[in-house]
């Protein structure tokens, strides 16, 4: 089967979803299914692969130009997609995101004579801002409607834009969709509840290096290192983690917080860290890959996944568990599907630094428990 995968995305760079796209490409190829990834994005892929094409989009920072791009008809995008279909001759099209140039993409998919499936990486189909969290840390039931203007959510003037985007998707794309593939049961339930059907639970997989699978995962001794890894964006909850770390340091003055990753929120977070007096206790490692990534996991006693807004299925939690590290995560999205409270980590409320600190301390205060939780998590992931 020949699979054309379209990624219409407006993200700030390569993150978990984008890394997952490439992982799936390799897996499909190994099983004899040629596939081609088409990126309609405002950021050029950092490490494009041979079976990948890229058409640059207007960045989100250029708001007026981006709106004209998304709401208008773009002949260059249509021609690019049509030529790709002619040359590649797919048996199946898989849509990842519906953001950049969505009017043109939607019209193209409406006229497409090839089966279509959608991989739902986030909550964009059921929330205009993708957070699914109302003010007061209330988990929302979802739905993109005019009432969102009156919930206190930060939809701003973007709500009419989101409503139009949803209308085009529902009218042009949804009737063509054979299935919505959902990495988490949480998102599957959301989509099914809002009549995006059939919604199918298809868990993501983390590519665990063979040496990790076959090797041992000794639990670290010595200083209390807490880890965080990912893309530094506001919804990842790193602000809450920094505030929680202040509480941790009151009991463990030598504790270290290792932050691996980069993103648009890094300057503000680094400033907050200084304001909180954390100084050198927070290590800003930047992006880590390969041996650096393995060294990061080897050194931490617990990984924090403190997402403050909807998180579909964070692969970093699986990666940590595979290496025998317990995880403290927040009770939102697919995180509780990975982290079993009291078995391989702790689940705490969102946007609650005090509860997050307690969860981290539960691991640090009892190294034997942390090691046991890590071992349980490793067995779960590798079985």
UniProtKB/TrEMBL annotation:
Segments forming domain Glycosyltransferase subfamily 4-like N-terminal: 15-198
PANTHER family referenced in this protein's UniProt entry, alphabetically: GLYCOSYL TRANSFERASE GROUP 1, GLYCOSYLTRANSFERASE
Entry-linked InterPro entries: Glyco_trans_1, Glyco_trans_4-like_N
Cross-referenced SUPFAM superfamilies: UDP-Glycosyltransferase/glycogen phosphorylase
This enzyme's EC code(s): 2.4.-.-
Gene Ontology MF annotations: glycosyltransferase activity
Originating species: mine drainage metagenome
Protein name: Glycosyl transferase group 1
Record keywords: Glycosyltransferase, Transferase
Domain named Glycosyl transferase family: residues: 227-379
């Amino acid at each position: 089967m020949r699979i054309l995968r379209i990624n219409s995305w407006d993200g700030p760079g390569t993150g978990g979803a984008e890394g997952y796209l490439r992982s799936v490409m390799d897996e499909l190829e190994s099983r004899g299914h040629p596939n081609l990834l088409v990126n309609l994005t405002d950021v050029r892929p950092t490490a494009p692969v041979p079976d990948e094409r890229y058409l640059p989009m207007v960045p989100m920072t250029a708001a007026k130009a981006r709106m004209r791009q998304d709401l208008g008809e773009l002949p260059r995008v249509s021609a690019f997609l049509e030529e790709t279909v002619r040359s590649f001759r797919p048996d199946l099209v898989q849509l990842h995101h519906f953001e950049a140039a969505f009017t043109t993409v939607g019209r193209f998919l409406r006229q497409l004579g090839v089966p279509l499936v959608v991989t739902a990486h986030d909550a964009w189909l059921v929330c205009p801002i993708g957070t699914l969290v109302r003010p007061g840390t209330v988990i929302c039931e979802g739905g993109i409607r005019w009432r969102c203007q009156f919930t206190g959510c930060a939809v701003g003037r973007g709500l009419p834009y989101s409503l139009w985007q949803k209308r085009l998707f529902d009218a042009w794309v949804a009737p063509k969709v054979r299935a919505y593939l959902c990495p988490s049961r949480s998102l599957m339930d959301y989509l099914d509840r809002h009549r995006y059907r059939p919604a199918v639970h298809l868990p993501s997989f983390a590519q665990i290096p063979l040496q990790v699978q076959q090797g041992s995962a000794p639990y670290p001794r010595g200083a209390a290192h807490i880890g965080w890894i990912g893309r530094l964006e506001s919804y990842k909850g790193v602000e809450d983690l920094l505030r929680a770390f202040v509480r941790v340091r009151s009991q463990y003055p030598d504790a270290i917080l290792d932050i691996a990753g980069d993103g648009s929120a890094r300057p503000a977070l680094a400033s907050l860290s200084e304001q909180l007096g954390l100084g050198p206790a927070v290590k800003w490692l930047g992006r880590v890959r390969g041996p650096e990534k393995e060294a990061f996991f080897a050194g931490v006693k617990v990984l924090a996944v403190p997402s403050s807004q909807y998180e579909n299925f964070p692969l970093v939690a699986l990666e940590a568990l595979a290496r025998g590290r317990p995880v403290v995560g927040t009770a939102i999205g697919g995180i509780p599907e990975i982290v079993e409270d009291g078995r391989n980590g702790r689940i705490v409320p969102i946007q609650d630094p005090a509860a997050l600190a307690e969860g981290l301390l539960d691991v640090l205060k009892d190294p034997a428990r942390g090691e046991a939780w890590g071992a349980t998590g490793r067995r779960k992931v590798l079985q």
